[in-house]
């Protein structure tokens, strides 16, 4: 299924989905729901229905009750274990072999064997968390389970309200105390289990903080009293717990089950998804959220002491020597253990004071990141032991003996009973159970008959699997089959992991945060993100210790080298090394200090050049020649941005129903500003293919944004892999297109005749000039990419923020001034507009613009640098807070448009031609000049952003439509007005046709008539028609129409001695090519006619009729054409200073 699901063929993916649904249904039904019986009788006062609750959001009760509305006590903490399999073997207990003898002959470790699948010790530390989450046998009543039967992280939050209260801060933010967890049992496990649980504790606080900061529903405010504070704290806590439990569940499915099935090892990001909804062949819904009760059989199944690594075995031996005073492990008795448990294994009742592995808490209650990283990286590098008979360390002898005896007191079934229950073939002999002669001979001597073999002993000493496709954990066959069924039941039976796992309950951000990222380099893992998030200084980007934490790095590198050699060098396989106190971040807040950091690249290198080299695969490429060629046609590009802004606004605007067409809406950021650089780079520079739809444009925008984020804003390891891989792919696609365009000049000429390569036709002159200056295609493509792509997102962010800034009603006067200046089209006016841009961005960010963010990270490469009176050692991370430096600094003067202060920030270095002086006047003039422009109603008319506090200083983030946190806005809806007035047609008969896609407003809801035109003095004209479609001759007409963007028609030049711009949107006839004789369906050519009078238009028409090709059809056309001229004034600002005519080739025109 993993291979089918990763194939591109939809049919095969559908087969995989069907197979997965069938498999999940089988595994889920391996166990009864609800259980058939319990070890003891359920309490008689157990409720039969959930109690009414005034709380209006879903949350987990502290004790696990009310998880199933119809059976509120099902699986709650402090309730009996279930019994899944009734025992049918009638062997008297007295005839069973002694438990100590069984351990000494079948279970005691004779030698340590490395795990054959490369599993690390950290995998089993996480297994400890899973096991302790669902099993906690009551020492006073062994039939009772003190924890709930759900993966609700009871080990972290507690299994009663009292335990939960002991770890909660209750300060109104929904947080836990720092680095706490409720279950003290884990303090006596190898320390990597506690270290992992501390990271999940931190993840809860991270989630709570994000839920509070984003405040999706706007309901979290400053509370007025203790009751309001507690209510807010409860809600944030409960939502954060849902997020954290879902995250824990995804680690189980992604990393844990992924390692069990060998999917991570084999490089598959596909995962078994037991949470999804499906239907049976009868169309009945497969059950979900029906509850779960843990059984004694699975309590015995999850005892995996044979896998204890050498190092963890040594740690356990040291612990036992300390607890038992050095007593021989082989002589420890159950009473010895009980005495020590009562006297020495009682954790501190205050979770805030508990420690493990002799770690010390800091003044803030946190453990050192370095200590936690040391423990976790040790566990990753230590190979676990293999499952095997005679594999359990001697130090755990007393634990195993107690386990065997407990299983007998529970009346547990035999090994073959359990296999029959699962639908597996019962073993016919001891030799079939384990072919090792030493093992099966000893077992036969002890048990006599294979039917007498106890479940616990049978599971521990069964023959194990070998690594292969689908087998990574390699336990015995019965365990392997059982853990999949249990994993499905644990997750699918929990309604908070299935039917209640929704963006509404977890918040949209929380739900998104729990989703797998198949492109993060860890093949579907979630623990990777947790390590990067909580210990970023100790898990650098690309580290195999973060991407494959459950696999021994030495094993994984060797395996990948043999099976996927092309991927090996993408990872760093050596153990991370760090200078002392690397997690300490020095925050620089003053203007002088920030300037010192940003202006000293030798001491604080940016890393930009290195990351660009990673993207392009080239050493630093000289791209000066690209900049010079672009700058030569600065006026042309400014004109392009103006026209394209108008065109995008027209195409992407929406009508307000019921407003007589007067109100229009447009997402000015997503559908206009963000795609302007995409169109410019694709159409005018590189000739990149664009499908023309919104999805394709947004894909290009996101690809360019990833490049910008990777090169300029990639300060954390969390998103490094995805951003890097996306950026490299974007460059390779870019390079391939540019090389193809210029590799064969003959082929290029042929391509120009292809109607689908309009962008190539537009970009050809520019590419030709680049090629003439630099014929090395590899360097040329890298230089062009480096010059324009990485900064495209910076430009969109700057323009978006300027528009948002001047949308405020308090700045209406400045907005009108910008529109007026844009209409002047002079260098002086453009300079004034650029000053307004600087003023807006200065107030929003700061004059020290490294990028449009509130701060940047740097790492000192030399020692003893002083900033803000702080000595910064080499290797120290520094955060230069641009926002804080702005407060009270002399840069405040630079926010005035007429300021000449030297610290006024400039965009020139970053944006090349895309500077405020070159493009902002035209773009802002079109946008801010829309009549009645204002924000759309509600939250859609504002950026979706929030401010978080990191390292004691503020940072601003934005939430996009997918609930990802991004450094810039991606949407802003505005509205504007358009008006119509009626005029009588002019009597002059001329030639021209109107576009079917042209939308003119009307005061009525009816489609506007040709006479519904704009009000104002007669300056330009729109030509309308009432004519019918002609036949295939129309396509032949297209063969001589001399129209291409930037090229005027020769006949127009001759007739009028004026410069007419003729630009095609699509040059094709239906599904054929121009001139192939087919009837066109949607072919149009758009002409931009600037300031032509009626007489001039008539001259154009007459000149056209004299063209030889057209004259051939003169008589035929006359019978099909009836045309009138309609006067139109200067168009409104969003149409620009010219008027665009769209000429469908279905209609032919002549002068009557």
Automatic annotation (TrEMBL):
Top-rank taxon: Eukaryota
GO term, biological process aspect, one: response to oxidative stress
InterPro entries: Cyt_P450_sf, Haem_peroxidase_animal, Haem_peroxidase_sf, Haem_peroxidase_sf_animal, Oxylipin_biosynth_metab, Ppo-like_N
Binding site for heme b: 305
Recorded GO MF terms: dioxygenase activity; heme binding; iron ion binding; monooxygenase activity; oxidoreductase activity, acting on paired donors, with incorporation or reduction of molecular oxygen; peroxidase activity
SUPFAM superfamilies: Cytochrome P450, Heme-dependent peroxidases
Alphabetical UniProt keywords: Dioxygenase, Heme, Iron, Metal-binding, Oxidoreductase, Peroxidase
UniProt-listed PROSITE patterns: PEROXIDASE_3
Protein name per its UniProtKB record: Heme peroxidase
Species classification: Eukaryota, Fungi, Dikarya, Basidiomycota, Agaricomycotina
């Amino acid at each position: 299924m993993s291979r089918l699901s990763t194939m591109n063929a939809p049919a095969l993916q559908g087969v995989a989905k069907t197979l997965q649904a069938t498999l999940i249904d089988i595994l889920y039904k391996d166990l009864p729901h609800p259980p058939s019986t319990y070890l003891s009788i359920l309490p008689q006062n157990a409720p039969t229905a959930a109690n009414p609750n005034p709380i209006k959001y879903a949350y987990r009760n502290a004790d696990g009750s009310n998880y199933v509305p119809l059976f509120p006590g099902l699986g709650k903490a402090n309730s009996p274990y279930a019994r899944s399999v009734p025992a049918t073997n009638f062997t008297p207990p007295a005839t069973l072999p002694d438990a100590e003898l069984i351990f000494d002959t079948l279970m005691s470790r004779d030698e340590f064997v490395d795990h054959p699948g490369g599993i690390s010790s950290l995998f089993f530390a996480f297994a400890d968390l899973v096991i302790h989450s669902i099993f906690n046998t009551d020492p006073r009543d062994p039939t009772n389970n003190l924890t709930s039967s759900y993966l609700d992280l009871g080990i972290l939050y507690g299994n009663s309200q009292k335990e939960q209260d002991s770890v909660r801060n209750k300060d109104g933010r929904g947080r836990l105390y720092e680095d706490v967890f409720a279950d003290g049992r884990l303090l006596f496990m190898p320390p990597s289990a506690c270290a992992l649980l501390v990271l999940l504790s931190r993840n809860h606080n991270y989630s709570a903080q994000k839920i509070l900061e984003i405040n999706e529903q706007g309901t979290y405010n400053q509370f007025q009293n203790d009751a309001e504070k507690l209510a807010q704290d409860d809600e944030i806590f409960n939502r954060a717990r849902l997020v954290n439990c879902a995250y824990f569940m995804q680690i189980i499915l992604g990393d844990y089950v992924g390692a069990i099935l060998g999917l991570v090892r084999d490089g598959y990001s596909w995962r078994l998804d037991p949470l999804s909804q499906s239907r049976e062949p009868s169309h009945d819904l497969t059950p979900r959220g029906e509850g779960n009760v843990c059984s004694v059989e699975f309590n015995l199944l999850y005892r995996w002491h044979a896998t204890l690594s050498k190092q963890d075995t040594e740690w356990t031996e040291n612990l036992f020597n300390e607890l038992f005073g050095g007593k021989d492990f082989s002589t420890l008795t159950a009473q010895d253990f009980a005495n020590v448990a009562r006297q020495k294994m009682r954790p501190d009742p205050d979770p805030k004071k508990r420690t493990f592995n002799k770690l010390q808490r800091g003044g803030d209650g946190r453990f050192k990141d370095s200590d936690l990283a040391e423990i976790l990286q040790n566990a990753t590098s230590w190979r676990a032991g293999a499952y095997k008979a005679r594999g359990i360390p001697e130090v755990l002898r007393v634990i195993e003996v107690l386990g065997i005896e407990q299983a007998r007191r529970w009346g547990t079934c035999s090994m073959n009973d359990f296999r029959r229950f699962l639908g597996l073939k019962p073993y016919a002999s001891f030799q079939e159970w384990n072919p090792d002669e030493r093992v099966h001979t000893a077992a036969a001597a002890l048990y006599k008959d294979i039917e007498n073999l106890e479940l616990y002993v049978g599971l521990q000493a069964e023959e194990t699997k070998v690594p292969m496709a689908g087998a990574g954990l390699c336990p015995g066959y019965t365990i392997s089959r059982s853990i999949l069924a249990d994993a499905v039941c644990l997750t699918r039976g929990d309604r908070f992991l299935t039917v209640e796992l929704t963006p509404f309950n977890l918040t949209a951000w929380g739900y998104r945060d729990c989703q797998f990222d198949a492109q993060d380099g860890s093949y579907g893992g979630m623990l990777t993100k947790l390590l990067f998030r909580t210990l970023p200084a100790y898990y650098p980007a690309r580290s195999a210790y973060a991407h494959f934490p459950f696999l021994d790095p030495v094993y994984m590198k060797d395996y990948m080298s043999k099976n996927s050699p092309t991927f090996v060098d993408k990872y760093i396989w050596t153990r991370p090394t760090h200078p002392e106190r690397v997690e300490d971040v020095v925050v620089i807040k003053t203007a002088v200090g920030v300037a010192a950091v940003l202006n000293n690249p030798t001491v604080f290198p940016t890393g930009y050049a290195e990351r660009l080299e990673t993207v392009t695969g080239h050493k630093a490429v000289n791209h000066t020649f690209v900049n010079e060629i672009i700058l030569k046609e600065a006026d042309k590009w400014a004109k392009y941005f103006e026209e394209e802004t108008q065109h995008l606004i027209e195409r992407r605007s929406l009508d307000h129903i019921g407003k007589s067409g007067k109100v229009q809406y447009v997402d000015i950021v997503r559908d206009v500003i963000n795609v302007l650089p995409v169109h410019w780079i694709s159409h005018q520079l590189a000739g990149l293919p664009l499908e023309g739809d919104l999805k394709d444009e947004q894909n290009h925008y996101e690809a360019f944004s990833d490049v910008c984020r990777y090169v300029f804003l990639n300060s954390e390891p969390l998103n490094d892999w995805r951003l890097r891989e996306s950026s490299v792919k974007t460059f390779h696609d870019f390079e391939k297109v540019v090389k193809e365009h210029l590799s064969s000049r003959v082929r290029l000429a042929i391509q120009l005749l292809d109607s689908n390569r309009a962008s190539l036709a537009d970009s050809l002159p520019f590419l030709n000039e680049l090629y003439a200056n630099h014929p090395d295609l590899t360097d040329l493509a890298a230089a062009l990419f480096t010059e324009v792509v990485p900064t495209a997102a910076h430009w969109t962010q700057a323009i978006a923020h300027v528009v948002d800034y001047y949308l405020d009603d308090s700045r209406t006067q400045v907005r009108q001034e910008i529109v007026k200046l844009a209409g002047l089209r002079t260098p002086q006016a453009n300079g004034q507009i650029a000053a307004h841009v600087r003023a807006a961005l200065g107030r929003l960010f700061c004059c020290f613009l490294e990028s449009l963010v509130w701060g940047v990270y740097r790492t000192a490469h030399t020692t003893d640098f002083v900033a803000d009176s702080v000595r910064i050692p080499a290797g120290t991370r520094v955060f230069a807070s641009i926002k804080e430096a702005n407060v009270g600094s002399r840069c405040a003067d630079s926010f005035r448009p007429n300021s000449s202060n030297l610290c006024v920030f400039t965009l020139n270095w970053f944006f090349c031609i895309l500077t405020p002086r070159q493009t902002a006047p035209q773009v802002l003039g079109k946008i801010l000049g829309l009549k009645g422009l204002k924000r759309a109603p509600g939250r859609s008319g504002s950026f979706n952003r929030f401010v978080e506090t990191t390292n004691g200083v503020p940072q601003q983030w934005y939430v996009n439509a997918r609930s990802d946190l991004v450094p810039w806005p991606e949407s802003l809806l505005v509205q504007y007005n358009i008006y119509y007035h009626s005029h009588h047609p002019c009597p002059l008969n001329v030639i021209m046709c109107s576009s079917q896609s042209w939308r003119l407003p009307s005061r009525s809801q009816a489609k506007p008539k040709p006479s519904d035109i704009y009000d104002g003095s007669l300056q330009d004209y729109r030509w309308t028609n009432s004519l019918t479609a002609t036949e295939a001759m129309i396509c032949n007409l297209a063969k001589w129409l001399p129209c291409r963007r930037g090229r005027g028609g020769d006949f127009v030049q001759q007739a009028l001695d004026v410069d007419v711009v003729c630009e095609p949107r699509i040059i094709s006839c239906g599904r054929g090519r121009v001139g192939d004789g087919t009837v066109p369906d949607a072919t149009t050519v758009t002409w931009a006619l600037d300031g032509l009078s009626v007489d001039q238009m008539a001259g154009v028409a007459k000149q056209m009729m004299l063209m030889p090709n057209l004259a051939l059809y003169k008589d035929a056309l006359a019978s099909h054409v009836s045309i009138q001229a309609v006067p139109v004034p200067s168009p409104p600002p969003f149409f620009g200073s010219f008027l665009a005519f769209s000429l469908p080739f279905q209609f032919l025109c002549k002068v009557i």
